[in-house]
């Protein structure tokens, strides 16, 4: 399955504003009530504002022209009251929508983050962390801005426009039509240019994502960069990404502002038409000065929101481009689904079995060809073979980090896909080549993903550690369980990280324990200690050891040779060594 967000086809990406927006509204359905109240407030605000020009025109025709200043004062008072209530409705809806925006941001970030947590390893292989961070932080914020600042202005402006349009047409339809005619041009212009503006915004968000990916890559590899003196190279790479973002931002800025001058010109034309048409009709006795003043105000009420809509429409395009990028993630489903449990036919002495398994990484060639093997309970297996031969890939299939492209993996005679993630990870422990620690203490790290000991005190936990024969390993850490570790830092050595990962996996008491080069950075004395701990694991535990250091696999019951997509039984330790040396000589 294609999980590369930056390689989605046009068809996969193409989604109309309407469906994008309605999908978004579905996601924030709990805000419906607030949106409805804000909508009522903004509509009330528009109606109140729209009454102004009518009352002014009325006052001019009925009181000013007849010099009845008492009436002028009364109407001025009424207008002041109306404007004050309008101010309150405007404040109320701004406050309400500010909350909606922040909660939307909160909901979206949570939704994306938990979706990312559900996605399979293939998703992380195919996407850069920096780009994902940008989607979670930056793109969601575009939506927040839209909700907290633009949406209600958008609605308010549209309702003011519609109200002003009705007033214009009802009072005198001839001038009304003249006043509204330029709006048709605006409509056509907007429809034609909107897709282009949205594309520009989407491209711009992508460059922000790329830039963030560059920053992430160089920050997480800074030691290699310093050691190889590649600072200039990375500076250049960042500069290129920054430059692309800069160029795209300029183009997007222009695109976002393309509506404004055109809208302004149409508004001026409308004023001109109202003025000339109105004066002409006054000379014909069909119109009054008060109405002309009202009309000029209504034309302004119609075109000013339209002008603001130009900016808001651009904001809407930015928000929708952000939402498209967010929904690309939300729309992904893991292809590692749990299937109904069916027992495979045949006898099942094996704890784990590969039946005619083929595997290739997405967009790559096939790595494993038609592998059949079985691992029995309580035995120790070793996977040996040249670098890049496919050992980690085989182990990853055992732990179901990926599914085979063909064939089946069985755990206890059941398709491994029929176990839910909890059950599977409880049965299979995997110590990865690159151990990862979370910022916290040794205790937090060894208890990671192990709810059984969650509420244990240090004393109780030490007892558990002793029972698992891990106390000598714990003693290596200066402050024992309370030793501090940092996820990316060097507060503990690589070998110590491997020890923590080892303890983490052993304490889960898995049925099958995979060690992928798990002792590569550990001194020989400690390595012997690990060997002893492995020996003392419950009798039924199956061990799969991947190692380049051959002394680690001397005691294996069976050795598999993994090379060029084939997994073959290598026989005795001696045989395996000869085969390996022969293979290395040939390559
Ligand atoms: N995430 C991935 N995406 C694409 N190809 C991959 C990925 N991981 C590994 N490969 C490819 O699969 C092949 C087997 O890699 P694998 O890591 O399984 O080998 P290995 O035997 O464990 O090597 P080593 O001894 O160096 O750890 C290699 O050609 C590698 O380039």
Automatic annotation (TrEMBL):
**A GO molecular-function term, please?**
ABC-type oligopeptide transporter activity
Q: Which domain of life is it from?
A: Bacteria
Check the record and name the Pfam families matching this protein: ABC_membrane (PF00664), ABC_tran (PF00005)
SMART domains listed in its UniProt record: AAA
GO CC terms in record: plasma membrane
Gene3D superfamilies for the chain: ABC transporter type 1, transmembrane domain (1.20.1560.10), P-loop containing nucleotide triphosphate hydrolases (3.40.50.300)
Q: Show where the ABC transmembrane type-1 domain sits.
A: 36-317
Give the membrane topology. Multi-pass membrane protein
UniProt keywords, alphabetically: ATP-binding, Cell membrane, Membrane, Nucleotide-binding, Transmembrane, Transmembrane helix, Transport
Family matches, as PROSITE patterns:
ABC_TM1F, ABC_TRANSPORTER_2
Please give the name of this protein.
ATP-binding cassette, subfamily B
Organism of provenance: Chitinophaga arvensicola
Taxonomic lineage = Bacteria, Pseudomonadati, Bacteroidota, Chitinophagia, Chitinophagales
